[in-house]
Amino acid sequence: MASRILLIKGKGGLGNRILSAVCGLVFADLTGRRAIIDWRDGSYAPIGTNAYPLLFDTPLKQPCEAFDAVEAPVSPALWAGHLGLTPQTMIDKFMPKSHSNPLAYRKLCTDLSRLDTPEDIAVFWSYLPKFGRISRHLRHTPRFAGKPESTIIKDYLDRFFMPNSHILGRVNAVAGQIEQPCIGVHIRYTDRKIPLEPIKTRLRRRLRAMPNAAIFLATDNADVQQQISGEFANVHHIQKYLPADGSRLHVPTSHQSSLAEAENALIDMWLLSRCAHLIYSRHSTFSVTSSYLGQMSPTQLDDVDKYAPAVVAKRWIQAYA
């Protein structure tokens, strides 16, 4: 094999998989491996089609399919002969009772505690980014040492997750119709619900300081969209499919175009990143990703779960576990 490979798999929502992939890309650079991103799980494109190059203008050009039948040492060994499978399928196949186990990823992810794994192909997958797990490597590597995590993430987002021209064109078109300054609001309210009343309270507080501000709302719930639009003036949102029953988006069985839904999600994410302020919950990596994209300072952020002990503890454990 010409060079050692880090195959970065994807599972979960866009925020999760983008930040997880960024962590994988950083780890690839730490270990001197060539990174390949494999998002063939069916969440954002037909099952078996890699959604990543369909959504982003990326310098990573080698197709992930090229490694499906490669016979070479693999880390973890569980992936040997299964490199074409998704994390979901691997969990179903080898540990079906571990879908909710926060440590299950360790069986499907190369050892992040070491940089000298000898296998030609290593697989990286985690449901959430693991910067806590690789922080020691970052501190001892000159190109990363001393840099804030947010700065590192922003650099990799700009290099590897620039939406394609079609998506960026739609972002610019919507942004051109929204008055400035604009307050961004992200409300996840389907399979996971963030606290709605604190969101409204923070929004009213911001509007008292910025009475002429527009509001850009990104949500996955039709009732919430209608509710916010009814209670507040000058609310903008993009036109997109929202399930009438409140079920979550981006499932492989959706009758909607999964790729179109992914494009809409990216438009929401990038529009939020351009807002002067962002009201959100750190419980959702979707809006956290927007804050990284916009290089937002603490004064620009209203995190309704900033002091929620369960959310803070869970995020810390997920980063370091």
In words, what does this structure look like?
- It is a single chain.
- The chain has helices at residues 14-31, 52-55, 87-94, 131-139, 149-160, 165-175, 196-209, 222-231, 258-273, 285-293, 309-320; strands at residues 5-9, 34-38, 74-75, 121-124, 182-187, 214-219, 235-236, 277-280, 301-303.
- With 321 residues, it is of the alpha/beta class.
- It has a 5-stranded parallel sheet, sandwiched between helices. Strands 2-1-4-3 form a 4-stranded parallel sheet, covered by helices on one side.
Radius of gyration over C-alpha positions, nearest whole angstrom = 20 Å
Query: What is the CA-CA span between the terminal residues?
Result: 32 Å
Helix content: 25-40%
User: Kindly state the mean pLDDT as a whole number?
Assistant: 92
Multimerization state: single chain
Please state the second-level CATH architecture of the largest domain.
Answer: 3-Layer(aba) Sandwich
* Discrete helix count: 11
Question: What count of domains describes the coordinates?
Answer: 2
Please write the CATH class name of the largest domain: Alpha Beta
Strand order of the largest sheet: 7-6-5-8-9
Q: Topology as H/E string?
A: EHEHEHEHHHEHEHEHEHEH
Indicate the structural class: alpha/beta
